[in-house]
Amino acid sequence: MLRSETAFQKCIAPGCGATASIQEALVTCPRCGDLLDIQYDWNRLPIPADWTVFERKWGRRHDPLCHSGVWRFHELLPFASPEHVVTVGEGQTLLQRADGVAPYVDLPAGQLFLQYEGLNPSGSFKDNGMSAAFTHAQMIGARQAACASTGNTSASLAMYCAVTQRMRAVIFIGSGKIAYGKLSQALEYGAQTVQIEGDFDDAMFRVREVAEQLGIYLVNSLNPFRLEGQKTIMYRVLEGLRWEVPDWIVVPGGNLGNSSAFGKAFSELHCLGLIDRLPRLAVINAEGADTLYQLYEVQGMRWDQGRADRATSDAYFRRLDADQRRASTIASAIEINRPVNLRKCLRALETCDGLVRRVSDQEILDAKAQVGAGGIGCEPASAASVAGARRLRQEGQIGAGDRVVCVLTGHQLKDPMATVAYHSRDPERFREVLGSRGVHEAVFSNPPVSVPNDFEAIVRAIRPSD
Length: 466
Ligand code: F0G
Known about the structure:
- A hairpin with a 7-residue loop joins strand 1 (7-11) and strand 2.
- Among the domains are: 1-45, no CATH class; 94-120 and 226-418, 3-Layer(aba) Sandwich (Rossmann fold), CATH 3.40.50.1100.
- The protein has helices at residues 3-6, 52-55, 64-67, 102-105, 126-139, 152-164, 180-188, 200-214, 224-230, 232-240, 257-271, 291-298, 310-322, 342-351, 361-373, 380-395, 416-424, 427-434, 455-462; strands spanning 7-11, 19-21, 36-40, 95-97, 112-116, 144-149, 168-174, 192-196, 217-218, 248-252, 280-286, 355-359, 404-408.
- Helix 5 crosses helix 6 (152-164), helix 6 (152-164) packs parallel to helix 7 and helix 15 crosses helix 16 (380-395).
- The chain is 39% helix and 14% strand.
- It is an alpha/beta fold.
- Ligand F0G binds at residues 124, 126, 149-153, 221, 252-258, 333-334, 379, 381-382, 409-410.
């Protein structure tokens, strides 16, 4: 049976519903320009009877398809034949019970979990999606791939190109808008790096234009295959909870690929009968990049079974342009004002009875320090999820007895500048890196102590004060 018979691309607009073969490289519907989903004819596919199908794969970890945290769930993203699958061992991530962080969110021990995607080979959740997009690119014989990026997508793309030696990577980044840890990855892995005057939104606009004109394979999360890979983050969350659905999934929102993928994952699992209820979804924007919050919470824009009125978001974007308002946050990964997956995210919020909140850079860095003090290092954008969970708990939206999973999207070492500026109590560095961000104090700072090169002085400095 040809895979193309059971998996296909489909426009998400119910009024359109155009379909296309998975052999095509499309990022939007050729008929109406809306986003595309990968859909499956589940009636003609072997649906897993229960979760033990996946558990049994733990015993066959010598097989790369069982070892990968993405392809271990192949039955739930069955668009590729096994011989096409590209894997570098992504998705070896674990749900961590975070009793050290729970008090900060005001949850009792055992109720807060962190899904730490920083453990991926390139240090962020992007590898889940990149493995899937790369697999599709291989299926259709693409030779060159491109993305716009705030840094993690580009690091992931560059890594897959370098490891597999199968495609050339071209990455578009905004000038001065990328954390050094991420830039260093793209450079070292040999990607062609194009720094565009402007920010991520400018780079995103240009890469779409260039990729379309030159026939380059686009791996941004507009690419529906990317999101198939990112669904597996939620499968691993469920696995970590012994297949019990948590009450809340809390995730940072940037280009809104993750939230969209999570909504699709849960909706499919529910339809397939693998789960009997849906979690609630909370998407957390940074205050300085809060398009989703403005549209969903302030203007009340809803998916409304696909009838979401594009005029609302179009007017919002026109206003951003007129006011020359640019996204601005210390969480550079989510410094995005024009999220390409907006409509899919609205759909996910409908599926999962969702909420959107926005948190300040101060809240993000304080939450990040608490996550770090709990033993897991994450980058600023990731900590937005924990800051958001704390906020929702204060509001009473999250109940004291709820089970909450916050997704930590990227590794701490991606962006050490913000961390060091926060902790070091060096006023100049603090002002330079954080001052313009409205971060006033480092509530949980752990500064280094300076001592002379002298034994007695060192002993005095490290002796416990009591
Ligand atoms: N967290 C991190 C660490 C990210 O790198 C990103 C996105 C997000 C959260 C937001 O995720 O787009 O699915 O809502 N980074 C992209 C990039 C934009 O280019 O690396 P989203």
